[in-house]
TrEMBL record:
Entries under InterPro entries matching the protein: HTH_HxlR (IPR002577), WH-like_DNA-bd_sf (IPR036388), WH_DNA-bd_sf (IPR036390)
Residues spanning the signal sequence: none
A Pfam family this chain is assigned to: HxlR
Name by which UniProt lists this protein: Helix-turn-helix domain-containing protein
């Protein structure tokens, strides 16, 4: 990574260990991130709604994923001072730009599920 006197320059190659792009790829390539963004693509949601829609995610992992996405500027957390307090999550403008590429990955996974399963079976029988 190249640095300047006022701080790091955020460009480089994600194939280098210290490249900031690698951390972003780690975030958006995470399975829970893909699913959270997929749910929030439909509009804002409360924690409990996300938890119900994303089967298998623990509360701890959902919390960590949402905090990471919020920190990265991809999700906005809004607290409404009501009784009881209402908290909703929504994609930011930057988060919305992820919807199309992540949807393409989901569609690819669904379209190729049979081929991948067949390849896994052949591999497992041979090994």
């Amino acid at each position: 990574m190249v640095t300047q006197s006022e701080g790091p320059v955020l460009f480089g190659s994600p194939y280098q260990a210290d490249c900031p792009a690698r951390r972003i790829l780690d975030r958006i390539g995470d399975r829970w991130t893909v699913l959270v963004v997929g749910v929030l693509a439909d509009g804002e949601a409360r924690f409990s709604q996300l938890s119900r829609r994303i089967e298998g995610v623990s509360k701890k992992m959902l919390t960590q994923t949402l905090r990471g996405l919020e920190r990265d500027g991809l999700v906005r957390r809004t607290v409404y001072p009501e009784v009881p307090v209402r908290v909703v999550y929504a994609l930011t403008d930057a988060g919305r730009t992820l919807c199309e590429p992540l949807r393409a990955l989901q569609e690819w996974a669904i379209a190729h599920l049979g081929d991948v399963a067949a390849s896994q079976e052949v591999y497992d029988r041979a090994n």
